[in-house]
Amino acid sequence: MPPYADPKPDPAWLDAQYNNRARIADSADIFQRWQRASALSRERSPCRLDLVYGDGPDERLDLFTTTRAKAPVLVFLHGGYWRSLDKADHSFVAPSFVADGALVVVPNYSLCPATSMDRILLQTAQALVWTYRNAALHGGDPQRIVVIGHSAGGQLAAMLLCCLWPLLGSDLPADLVKGAMAISGLHDLEPLRRSPYLQRDLHLSPALVRKLSPAYLPAPSAPLYAVVGGLESEEFLRQNRLIRKAWGAKTVPVCEPIADCNHLTILHDLADPLGRCHLLVNELLGLDAAAAGIAATYGKH
């Protein structure tokens, strides 16, 4: 039995559950704020833009550097249901982590329906390979790579924990990714296949659902933190609980809603140096002061 509990959900209900632009009244204003904040971040932060990690026109990444020697590396994968948005819309997540002492990498990838979802996963794996091989050239520590993803990016981050890296290169360690966090992640793609709002662009088949749903795969050895906005739909709250149920509490030691956040404003909590998401990421990165702050304020999970 697949993780998705209801084999015949109502398509209109699924559309309402997953259409966050319709659910969030000020979504257009939020996207505009992201664009303005991201433009300022690129203008005011030390960064290198549009570095090439592959042969395709979309296979580019932005890199935000820090003065910390051998800095832990944070790779952020944007959302947009694999069919919209861009790395340039998400530069605003980088400055607070750079200030904490992390090297931040924000890759782009091709979008559906022009490309397939399995191709997008291969592109993000290629971006991680580039990061491992080049992080030291930019002050980062290739032995301390953490992947964070929002929404569709959460699915990608969880899948990258399961990647058999040595098959992509003899120089790659099996534990290339030391940990990940899925923010409002999509861990079971079956309801998306049954949502007309999404399926018209994603073209998911039952085989792709099984191949690309993290909850259908064996638990990886590295940890995944799973968070979701407390104000999100029933389905997003279920998706977040599901990955702990599928992979267990040892692999998913953090599985929680973030109070007063919806599907978009949860990224504001990520960018906020005092936000719960931000502190959890710093714990994964091994930034000691932030990790101590988590222990003192929230306790260990």
Describe this structure as you would to a colleague.
The protein has 301 residues and is α/β, with parallel strands linked by helices. The radius of gyration is 18 Å and the shape is globular. Helix 12 crosses helix 13 (288-297). It is built from 13 helices and eight strands. It has an eight-stranded mixed beta sheet, sandwiched between helices. Residues 290-301 have low confidence and may be disordered.
**Distance between the terminal alpha carbons, to the nearest Å?**
30 Å
**Quantity of strands, as a count:** 8
Spatial strand order of the main sheet:
1-2-4-3-5-6-7-8
Structural class: alpha/beta
Pick out the low-confidence regions. Answer: 290-301
Instruction: Report Rg.
Output: 18 Å
Q: What is the string of SSEs from the N terminus onward?
A: HHHEEEHEHEHEHHHEHEHHH
Strand content: 15-25%
Main β sheet profile? 8 strands, mixed
User: What number is the mean pLDDT?
Assistant: 94
Q: How many distinct helices?
A: 13
Helix percent band: 40-55%
Shape: globular
Key attributes of the depicted protein:
single chain; 301 residues; alpha/beta; eight-stranded mixed beta sheet; 13 helices; disordered C terminus
Draw up the topology in text:
Blueprint: H1 11-18, H2 20-23, H3 27-44, E1 47-52, E2 60-64, E3 71-77, H4 94-100, E4 103-107, H5 117-134, E5 140-150, H6 152-161, E6 177-183, H7 190-193, H8 196-202, H9 206-212, E7 224-229, H10 234-251, E8 254-258, H11 266-271, H12 276-285, H13 288-297
Parallel strand pairs: 3-4, 3-5, 5-6, 6-7, 7-8
Antiparallel strand pairs: 1-2, 2-4
Compact overview of the structure:
This protein has 301 residues and is of the alpha/beta class. 42% of the residues lie in helices and 17% in strands.
